[in-house]
Amino acid sequence: LPAGGVPLRLCGTRVALEGINKPVIDRIIRVDHAGEYGANRIYAGQMAVLGRSSVGPIIQQMWNQEKDHLKKFNELMVAYRVRPTVLLPFWNVAGFILGAGSALLGKKGAMACTVAVEESISDHYNSQIRTLIEEDPEKYKELLQVIKQFRDDEREHHDIGLEHDAEAAPAYSVLKTAIQLGCKAAIFLSERI
C-alpha cells in the first residue's frame, strides 16, 4: 500500500466486482469469449478454402466483426477477472476444421455453417440477455449493451448466409442440425470448464 493506505489500481480496465453475481458473470463471459474465439477459427477455416472466391469478401467482412467481438471479450475477461475455458486449444482446432470442412462443400456449405452457428449464438445471447435483465438490468448495463450489439451482428451474419444460398447446401437440414448440436455441446462445456 502507498503512504496514504489506499491501494493502487494497476489496471484501469477493471470493473467494480462488488455486488455482481460473479458465478453468472463468469459463466457468461467465459462462454461468450469461447464462442467468439471459435467463430474466428471457423471464419479462418472458411477463408483458407474460399478466401479467393467470389464469397471471400463476404466471409472476410463477417470475420472482421468476429475479430472485434473477440477483442471486446478479451477486454471483458480482464475487467471482470474471468479465466478462459480450458477448452480453447480444442476450439482452435475444431473451429478451423468446421470452417474449412463446410467451405469444402462450396459457398453454399460455408453459408449453411454460418446460418447454423449464428442462429445458435444469437439464441444463446438472447438467453443471456434475459438472465442479466432478471438479475439487474442497471447493474449489468454495459454487458447487456455489448451482448445485444453482438447478438444483432450474429443475426446479420445469419441473414447474409441465407441470402447467399445456405439452404441450397447439400443435406442442409442434416448439416444445420449437426452443427447446432455441436454448438449446444460447446456452449455447455465452455460455460463450465
Automatic annotation (TrEMBL):
UniProt superkingdom: Eukaryota
- Pathway(s) this gene product operates in, as recorded in its UniProt entry: Cofactor biosynthesis; ubiquinone biosynthesis
* A Gene Ontology biological process term: determination of adult lifespan
A Pfam family cross-referenced in the UniProt record is COQ7
UniProt keyword terms in alphabetical order: Iron, Membrane, Metal-binding, Monooxygenase, Oxidoreductase, Ubiquinone biosynthesis
Q: Where are the transmembrane segments?
A: none
Q: Does the keyword Iron apply?
A: yes
**Per its record, what are the GO molecular function terms?**
3-demethoxyubiquinol 3-hydroxylase activity; metal ion binding
GO CC, sorted alphabetically, is: mitochondrial inner membrane; nucleus
HAMAP family, from UniProt? Answer: COQ7
Question: What is the protein's given name?
Answer: COQ7 protein
Q: Which organism is it from?
A: Herpetotheres cachinnans (Laughing falcon)
What is the organism lineage in this UniProt record?
Eukaryota, Metazoa, Chordata, Craniata, Vertebrata
Q: Gene symbol?
A: Coq7
